[in-house]
Amino acid sequence: MTEKREYRGDYPDRTLYIPGPTEVREDVIEAMCEPTFGHRSDRMTDLYTTIVEDTREFLDTDNDVIVLTGSGTEFMESSILNLVEETVLVTTCGSFSERQADVAERLGKSVDRLEYEWGRAVKPADVREALEEAETEYDAVTCVMNESSTGVRNPIEEIGDVVAEYPDTSFIVDAVSALGGDSVDIDAHGIDVIFTSVQKAFAMPPGLAVCVVSEDAYEREVESESASWYGGFQRSLDYYDRKGQTHSTPAIPVMLAYRTQMKHMLEEGHEARDERHREMAEYTREWANEHFDVFPEAGYESQTVSCIENTRGIDVAETIEAVSEEYDMVFANGYGSDLGEETFRIGHMGEHDTESIRALTDAIEDVAGL
Ligand SMILES: Cc1ncc(COP(=O)(O)O)c(C=O)c1O
Question: Which of 71, 143, 195 to mutate to test the pocket of ligand 1 (most atoms within 8 A of CB)?
Fold first, then answer.
């Protein structure tokens, strides 16, 4: 049994380079310190409509946006409930896409997996073959955009184009750890549902999940018998239409932080933000190739999380500990027991830039004697 460990007031302030949560600007943290106000007030409508419309502008989409209290996993679950009556094709290539399959199975859906070895990317041609060979049309296909456990960026645009040829099949994308740091033209590739958590490349404090929903997905859910109450697209979007508010009490302080951070994101602009993330990813890959190796399949490397193969056999746990103690910087080990020591991961997302990533790689070089 886990025993109580008293929360203290003297923790060191360490810079986060893990694949989320990530660094949050000071003024975004401060934005949370407003007196509480009612979630049915005009002030709430001002706040919620502002963050929803700003998100739509930032993501450059005409689809509907929901900002819901919870984490990204909420939409892993509710998008299955809302859109899958019977069968779903889940593409798996790492821990989070496997979680999506587990969630769908637990919800009693019939799940076919299109499985890839960890580190490999999902291929559009294989998705096409699976759709062609299916006995009945799938209700949905799911794909993770950025597999944070392996650092793979799946080609969701091409996969979306394939799924779009099957008009009765929804395309659901888990873009947690990607959106905000890796742009995608949501409306151009038949993406019915795409969701993220705000503590990743949006660089906000945790507590909210964002979901972009197509008109088709909204309509399909109206016909569904298993739709989620809390994560139902229809309930959230209808409530927004009528009142400009959320269906239940939201994490108002995090929404205040969201409002401030979205201003920064709009000011920087979608393209500039994407470019900054591309530069960080390129720098990290070059560094990894010089000292180690890059874990994901070539050509499918993530723009926000680098998974680095520990080809030199350094003690990953010890290096993380030493960098943390000596430099007050935290990066991540490999995911799970299999990759824990075989790889390590650097989150280059949100507020970071190439200089701040270089500060981390310098620290790793120093500690590991590279
Ligand atoms: C790709 C991916 N999907 C889903 C999740 C789960 O997100 P959350 O912890 O916000 O529920 C994560 C978390 O790291 C993730 O990286």
Answer: 71
Domain count, the chain: 2
Structure pTM? 0.98
Owning domain of residue 211: 26-266
Mutate to test the pocket of ligand 1, among 103, 153, 177 (most ligand atoms within 8 A of CB): 177
- Are 294 and 235 part of one and the same domain? no
Q: What is the pLDDT along the chain (370 residues), one digit of tens a residue?
A: 999 999 999 999 999 999 999 999 999 999 999 999 999 999 999 999 999 999 999 999 999 999 999 999 999 999 999 999 999 999 999 999 999 999 999 999 999 999 999 999 999 999 999 999 999 999 999 999 999 999 999 999 999 999 999 999 999 999 999 999 999 999 999 999 999 999 999 999 999 999 999 999 999 998 888 999 999 999 999 999 999 999 999 999 999 999 999 999 999 999 999 999 999 999 999 999 999 999 999 999 999 999 999 999 999 999 999 999 999 999 999 998 778 889 999 999 999 999 999 999 999 999 999 9
Closest CA to 48 of 72, 65, 31: 65
What residue ranges line ligand 1, CB within 6 angstroms?
Answer: 20, 71-73, 96, 144, 146, 148, 174, 176-177, 197
Q: Are residues 68 and 193 in the same domain?
A: yes
Q: Which of 266, 294, 315 is the last residue of a domain?
A: 266
End-of-domain residue from the set 230, 251, 266:
266
Q: Whole-angstrom Cα distance, residue 81 to residue 107?
A: 7
CA dihedral 252, 216, 109, 92 (to 10 degrees): -80
**What is the phi/psi pair of residue 4, to 5°?**
-65, 135
